[in-house]
Design a protein that fits this description.
The chain is an all-alpha fold. It has 5 helices and no strands.
Amino acid sequence: MKQRAYDTAVRLPALHGPLFKGLPAGYHDVYGDLDPTAAPAVLARLQLPADTPHLAELRSVLAAGHRNHYRSLHAWDDAVRASTD
């Protein structure tokens, strides 16, 4: 059901920022669970500035197949370190 909402929201550039904010929030939420295939597809469709905070980290953890911060406790920290190197 969320996927249909994302597909609709991504068509409206004014919603790209808020939609993006929801993705890392979903990754970090205790009950969150991002699909590592669908979430990068949504990210690719968003028109975001290259320096959008947490964009690189989110792409990194999803590319590695992580769905949730609590299932991969160090993945986000590793992505943060990699983005600052």
